[in-house]
Amino acid sequence: MLSLYDLHITTSRAALAELPEGKLLINTINAHSYNVAQKDALFAEALQNGDVLLADGASIVHACRWLRTPSQPKERIAGYDLFEYEMAALEKRAKADKTRLTVFFMGSSPTVLERITKRAATDYPHLEIKTYSPPYKAEFSKEDDTAIINAINAANPDLLWIGMTAPKQEKWTYSHWAELDIHCHVGTIGAVFDFYAGTAQRAPLWWQQHSLEWLYRLMKEPKRMWRRYIIGNILFVHNILRERLGGRS
């Protein structure tokens, strides 16, 4: 079971500039992932023991404030915010050093990865994009895991993105962390692959600024999202009340 009292959550976007260099696991947490982690022990462990945790949801920010948890995030930091920051920072570094640095995208379909590669060539001309599309299955075999790990290690990336949706991406990366012989930041960013590729549409800025991105997604895909956002939001309130009644504040 996951508790917000036990998490160290990054306070603001400005704090991203203070992250140390080197191998760093960066995860995000929102109401849905918080709910899932209540019954998924490995997922809860991955979120709690990663190097950096971002509040990808205004609900987490408000809940931490209401519970008076040790971590007090000041604002939402979406996975896309992390993506834009890290990519821009690496592009700036590559341009200044007059070299090409490598970004590795692991996850999603070949079509999505092809679109990412094409767009990134324009947006980040000093970065070399490498990709790997894993088998589409609920659970990887040992052979699958080995192939993915070998591809990542062979690329020796300067930035690694894992996009397989939560909780699969966080659990996989955490479970194989010691096997990844890399030196860079690693972000588990799920839907960002589709957003950047243009195969899924992110909510307009107004919806984001008013903490309504979840409602926009629900309106766009009601059949797929109703359980996550309608039942899920009710469950989130229930779980937060349970934490409050636990008396740890």
State mean pLDDT (0 to 100 scale). 95
What structural class is derived from the secondary structure elements? alpha/beta
Into which percentage range does the β-strand content fall?
5-15%
Number of helices: 11
- Into which percent range does the helicity of residues fall? 40-55%
Number of strand segments? 6
Task: Write out the strand line-up for the largest beta sheet, numbering strands in chain order.
Answer: 2-1-6-5-3-4
End-to-end Cα distance: 17 Å
Q: Low-confidence parts, pLDDT < 50 over ≥5 residues?
A: none
What is the alpha-carbon Rg in Å? Answer: 18 Å
Reported for the largest beta sheet, the result is:
6 strands, parallel
- Helix/strand order: EHHEHHEHEHEHEHHHH
Total separate domains: 1
Task: Sum up the overall morphology in one term.
Answer: globular
